[in-house]
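Troubleshooting: if your tokenizer reports a length mismatch, compare against these two reference records.
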Amino acid sequence: MALARAHSVAIVGVEGHLIEVEADIAQGLPMTILIGLPDTALREARDRIRAAIVNSGESWPQQKITVGLSPASLPKRGSGFDLAIAVAIMTANNALPLSAPAGKMFLAELGLDGRLRPVPGVLPAVITAEPCVDTVVVAAENAAEARLVPDVRVVAADSLAEVAIWLRGGPAPTPAPSPAPSPRPRGPGGKPVRARAVLDLADVLGQSEARMAAEICAAGGHNLSLLGPPGAGKTMLAERLPTILPRLDAAAALEVTSIHSVAGTLVPGTGLVAEPPFCAPHHTASKAAIVGGGSGLIRPGAASLAHRGVLFLDEAPEFGRDVLDALRQPLEAGEVVIARQAMTARFPARFTLVLAANPCPCARAATPGGAACECSPAARRRYLGRLSGPLLDRVDVKITLEPVNRREMLYDRKHAEPSAVVAGRVAAARDRAARRLAGTPWRLNAEIPGAELRRAFPPEQGALKSLDRAMELGQVSARGADKIVRVAWSVADLAGKPCPGAGEIDVAIALWLGVTK
């Protein structure tokens, strides 16, 4: 009879939980029992691990093996526990020294031949294990991701046999070198395929008010709605919004990288995600694809993949009404909470939402001199009515785009500001906001709660007269009033003013109502 322990990590949302893996070998019929709320993939680990141990040249105990995963009340999902279970069984079978797994965390899937395979979620797993262990053992493909966490020794291996030799006191594993990057793809005639052009805000010709609105949204983290006919520049503007956002700081980059690690979208070998992400799901996407979920393993959705970046919903009225309304919670709370019978998963989701819509189903309602619109007034109301009032009430800036004429195009080809110039103003505005909000948990104007906004950051005296009048007329809700003041602060930050006055409040009201022209 023998008992051994090893450690691994279970991921729930983007949070890790340290798991103690216990293996007990006792007299009885040869069988392997796995306890501790394992899912189907984890139950199948019994056969995978047995084959991996045998094919690695080790012996499999012909006795009763009981493997317990603690805490037992936490559901365990996925194949990342394979290596820890194998090490615990081999230690209990006296194939490894009893003290060998101490101070180590094991996270990898096993192939039937004993190879170590990568798993998602390594970065948050290592962050969780860092205070408790001094060494983490992962597959070679996960090594670069694991090393993003400082002060933790990372041991990367290609196979279970290498890990066993190291645990017996042998040399540390030396993974095979990664394959050389694939050559640049070539098109017809053998010519290299050109890389995607670099996006720049100067590409958006005309639409000076829309570019100004995008700059304000970038400075304060505000949500944006774009209404206009096809070809007016809605998609171009949304795609270029990340180019004027500042790079992510270390804490935000670690948070964003952890989300992409859990989602399995992190490119192997890359470092921290330092650029603000841009996510543009198709209008046929389901609610789970947008906000996250899943029947088995809970995965983050587009709202979380766009954390600290931009979530762009093109043809927004074509999305399902329930899908759009599901965004109301993350827009308010900055996170997605997904509740299941056995667990609750939380995913950060603080993003800038950009909605783009045509004025009507045929998209010709705002095209002067073109083909006549075929939609009835009722059809137009029904089409735009798919964007619910509570959702639009959470959108700070609303802009209507008109078709660009040739004169505007010729002028902007020479005079439109590039992204680098606008990004400089945005960075300066964010620095002003950060200094003002120092000592608080917020860094952007859009993050300040309404009560704190009214108490600690009021505008100039007498500046709210026009806002009070708009509320009396029923044009602005209480939530909208707070958003208008937040936008006014961003306008003031861009202008270098210490506090918003009546002019900034009027600009914010016009942007809220969508009547800038």
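Reference record two:
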Amino acid sequence: MTAVTPEIVADHGLSPDEYALILEHLGRAPNLLELGIFSVMWSEHCSYKSSRLHLARLPTEAPWVIQGPGENAGAVAIGTDPEGNPLAAVFKMESHNHPSFIEPYQGAATGVGGILRDVFTMGARPVALLDALSFGAPDHPRTRHLVRGVVAGIGGYGNCVGVPTVGGEVRFHPSYNGNILVNAMCVGVARADRLFRSAAAGVGNPVVYVGSATGRDGIHGATMASAEFDASSEEKRPTVQVGDPFLEKLLIEACLELMATDAVIAIQDMGAAGLTSSSVEMASKGGVGIRLDLERVPARETGMTPYEFMLSESQERMLMVLKPGREAEAEAIFRKWGLAFAVIGEITSTGRLQLFFHGEQVANLPLGPLSEGAPKYDRPWVRTPPPPPLADAPASADLLRDLVQLMGSPDLASRRWVWEQYDHMVGADTVVRPGGDAAVVRVHGTRMALALTADCTPRYCAADPVAGGAQAVAEAWRNLTAAGATPLAITDCMNFAAPTDPVVMGQFVGCIEGMRAACLALDFPVVSGNVSLYNETEGRKIQPTPSIGGVGLLADWAEAATPAFKAAGETIWLVGETRGHLGQSLWLRECRGREDGPPPPVDLAAERAAGDWVRRMIAERRVTAVHDLSDGGLLVALAEMALGGGIGAAIALPEGAATAMAFGEDQGRYLATTPAGTELPPCPVPLVRLGETGGAALAVEGHGAIPLEALRAAHERFFPALMGSAAKAMG
């Protein structure tokens, strides 16, 4: 076997100090296979070695939390089915950033496949997908290619597997030119008393491999995802996995069928680091050992080596521990679905990973150092200095002209071109489609529904990580509230540049601090998540992007609120205090070319008070439409409500500087409409009557009017123009 040299150690992403630690753990030099196993298990992607210390500060518990971080996905209680069985929502968000930049279609597609497996591994049937996408500048030469490939990959996989993609977000910024972000979120529903975990148990119990056969694709994918890009990133294409959504659909059905029996003791998706991570994690969580006979692993290529079997990230594969004597029953199910099935090993009492190939032992490693004993770094970090106040806030010469520009800007333009490529109605349970504050999906066979959203404002996080982290959580909470749902919990996907840079590490620490404060204030715990570091290319770093996926519950899907105006002659109300904060606003960036000033402060007590009141108004059916205020401020939210309903409005801005009132991005605010004459109870935050709905234009007292059709034309123009003939061909 190849001798391990310092160059080979470096090629595996391990530092000299880490290699010295491996020697200390083993008392000898590892062979190449053992080195490869350590390299993937100690990668940032698998070990969280730079982030574990800080992630531990996030609140993860609440009476409704069934499963917090540490499993394939998190789970929260959501009520019962008609037979009285307890139900759980199971969900998680993960990144597939580096693969999607190298090969956008397969990178995005396999990101969807992986997050689906995380959820159905828990015993849940996937019911919805969301995606949070960050691309470079629209005029960058690679952006169109990456947008087209990523959107096609998400749609191609999700549509084929039969799970609706119901929401998400898309942003553009030059910081992502060399490193896009593709974050995928999946939500499923399971019996709360039949959730499956990954901890192996039972010495002598069979270890079973199911799903697709193993090939050479994706080897070192976890290591590649734990390093920054350079000019040779295109050469990493072989590390990108290739997905098969039709096979994934068969795997879902076969796994759920077997789970309906009592044969499964533990189950784990073969995701990042493939057979290595799944076997190590299952055995270490259970406090047992594991022996694998690698020649038994189903292979789709000839001459595969133990190294390739252990480090391949071929898709659509699972590892299970079964009760003894149940192998034939399980095999019959998987063969029926046309899937590979093989008993490849057994659980032992050794506390070690023992690998054999045609009777020869090729690796023998202690499990502790591979999992809990992985390096844990307290990396140096510096706090991001607060930006100076926006002392010279400019004024708009024409509010409505600026509104048209904003509505057609990359971050606010209609995403119709994107979501019309996704089958967001498959399954027939999507109640509120993409385009609003939150998607709403019925819990099949009940009156309940889940509200789902994905949110982050990276420009806030870059300017003030603490405020930005808090705002990302608060906006997710606000979006669920605007749909009438009780917010339950979040999953996060922490996308940052290299943690070896103290400035970047300070951004990470600051965002965690802000997220923690918001989660505590809003009773909105973190139940799952993912960290993606080294998102930079040749020193050009992404904006810190802690994507937040939120899940809320509606007792009755028919009572979901939406942003669209419902009728003419209704009163428009502004809920929450408006101070006119223009720092880091989209208006300042898009209309004045500036990215400066502090982000808006987040008053979590006011956020909670406003949201609780809005949800009560929705539940009491006092309001007919609700929309939260975020990017672009008041006039943008008003225009979105008007375009959604095809009904205009006439308003007067709140007292104050017109530009700040129109486009300031103060947090904790909502727009709501009520039938004329409706009495509203006292509100714990400022409540201002703005005007009323009606007509075919948006009129602002003292500033003129703009026809809805002009707004709509601007709003719908960006994506077809960006994507050119491909967009036109789709209509």
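Descriptive notes for reference record two:
- Residues 232-237, 725-731 have pLDDT under 50 and may be disordered.
- The first strand starts at residue 65 and ends at 67.
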